[in-house]
Amino acid sequence: MITSVAVVGCGWFGLPLAKELVSQGLKVTGSKRSPQEAEALSADGIAGFALDLEALESEGLSSQTREAITQGLTCDAIVINIPPGLRRGDNGYLDRLKRLKALMGNHEYRRIIFISTSGVYPACGGCFSSESGESGCVESDAKVHSPASETLLAAEALFSGANSADGVSNNHSAGGESNNNCVVVRFAGLIGPKRHPGRFLAGREDVPGGNLAVNMVHLDDCIGAVTSLLKAEGPLSPAYNLCAPLHPTKAEFYQKAATQLGLTPPNFIEGDLAEDKRVDGGLITRELNYQYKFTDPLAMLADC
Predict the structure, then answer these.
(1) N- or C-end of the chain: fewer Cβ atoms within 10 A?
(2) What is the tens place of the pLDDT at every residue in 227-257?
(3) Contact 161, 167 (CB under 8 A)
């Protein structure tokens, strides 16, 4: 039974997750990049510790700092939530994760939850999932299709083990059991408080792909699903997608989002359906009976 959890990265997702775990009676530690931010976590019942993975290489660690980090990471379970920043041109993601793994040392975790993204899936057009009987990318469809996806899969492999000869994990198929205590959770597009999508494309003209599907998941379901995985007994699959079951078109979603904020809705043109991608988030429902709070991205907009 898991009684303590370390949340590495108490940001937009990590902080409310940590608060939820505290409310369920678990002992929770959490990291922030600065000592001041880490100390402030105590107000929410979280034992905060400072961890700046970017600064480690240049500054090194004092024995006191290393001890504080070690104590913070030494829990029954750990949730690793380090944003990759690949869209910003950040090329230090894997190095940061390697430093974290070194700090974790040989501690035996009952469960490791590694937060990844659905960016590991290529456009699948009319792909079909035999597991769910619906169209969509399932966990076994992950593959290198771009430099960013290569980085994401290499990051997953750092913690999941079972690397193939080319260095990319090959143990993320649905329906099998993980060979260690690591579970990869791949978030679709994130939406929730302070993350309203209405401004993303507002006022733009001739945005391509208006007829293509959106793949979204609400913050509440990210918290609920990860909590369920931490509490689950017995073996789990090595990877789970988190994505709402319904997939409105890009035009439907972003036009409604902009209108809801009183902004000029974007204008779209159609895209090639071969570039369509629908992420199947049903494995966690089929295996753990997790029920999504938000099944329709259009309904999520009212809870942002």
Answers:
(1) N
(2) 999 999 989 999 999 999 999 999 999 999 9
(3) no
| CA–CA separation, 128 and 234 (whole Å) | 29
Query: Is residue 144 a contact partner of residue 129, using CB atoms and an 8 Å limit?
Result: no
Q: Can you list the positions of beta strands (E) in the chain?
A: 4-8, 27-32, 47-50, 77-80, 111-117, 182-187, 189-191, 216-218, 239-242
Beta bridge partners of 218: 191
Asked if residue 229 lies in contact with residue 214, where contact means CB atoms within 8 angstroms, the answer is: no
Taking the CA atoms of 283, 286, 288 and 290 in sequence, report the sign of the dihedral they define. positive
Distance between CA atoms of 293 and 291, rounded to whole angstroms?
A: 6
Which residue(s) pair with 128 in the sheet? 135
| Strands 182-187 vs 239-242: parallel, antiparallel or unpaired | parallel
Distance from C-alpha of 182 to C-alpha of 239, rounded to nearest angstrom? 9
| DSSP 3-state of 208 | coil
| Cα separation values, 137 from 130, 134, 154, 224, 246, Å | 10, 9, 19, 22, 13
pLDDT on residue 65: 87
C-alpha–C-alpha distance, residues 147 and 149, integer Å = 6
pTM of the model: 0.91
CA distances from 133 to 137, 143, 177, 274, 280 (A): 11, 21, 21, 20, 10
